[in-house]
Amino acid sequence: MILWLATFAFSIASALLPFLPIEVYIVGAGSAVAGTGEAIWLGVAAGAGATVGKVVWYQAARLGIDSAWAQRKLSSPKVRAGYEKWVARAHGRPWYAAGIMFLAASAGIPPLLVMSAVGGILKMPMWIFLPTVFLGRTLRFSLLFLGVDLAIH
User: Fold this and answer.
1) What is the pLDDT of residues 123-139, one digit of tens each?
2) Which residues, 6 or more positions from 93, have their beta carbon under 8 angstroms from its beta carbon?
3) Phi, psi angles (nearest 5°) of residue 20
4) What is the Cα–Cα distance from 125 to 128, expressed in whole angstroms?
5) 58 pLDDT exceeds 90?
6) What percent of the chain is predicted at pLDDT more than 70?
7) pTM score
8) Comparing C-alpha atoms, which of 71, 50, 3 is closest to residue 31?
9) What gap in Å lies between CA 113 and CA 98, rounded to an integer?
10) What is the count of structural domains for the chain?
């Protein structure tokens, strides 16, 4: 239980602070994993923590787009048109938005931190953001924990 909570807490910190890579933590913590079940549960802990951290970035960007500074930037017709086009894409094609977010969460391409902010700026629906980030991160981190467990044992 301690390792699960430590993994959850560190993954929140890692999601907020890009200079704390969770992958390095997983390599270290993975040596304490005792089997497939534990590796998957630690992947779930890391995925949940990462999702919490990315929601912070998402919310900051979502609220920031309504700031006076952002509204001044959006006062340009060209910038406003581009912004509205991307908002329409994110809302009009939820599977497209979910696919890009899942790719960012699972493979890191494009970087999830950037995509979390973009999702907030475009006001991507939370019902798309949360499950895709959680599933993508959980898959990524579970596979990493399983890989470390397989390599060590």
Assistant:
1) 899 999 999 999 999 99
2) none
3) -110, 85
4) 6
5) yes
6) 100
7) 0.88
8) 3
9) 15
10) 1
Range of the domain at 31: 2-152
Angstrom distance (rounded) from CA 31 to CA 151: 9
Angle between helices 126-152 and 112-121 (to 10 degrees): 170
Q: How far apart are CA 132 and CA 101, in angstroms?
A: 6
CA distance 3 to 32: 9
pLDDT at 149: 82
Q: For the chain, what's the residue count?
A: 153
- Do 134 and 112 contact (CB within 8 A), yes or no? no
Any alpha helices (H) in the chain, and if so which ranges? 2-16, 22-29, 36-64, 68-73, 77-92, 94-107, 112-121, 126-152
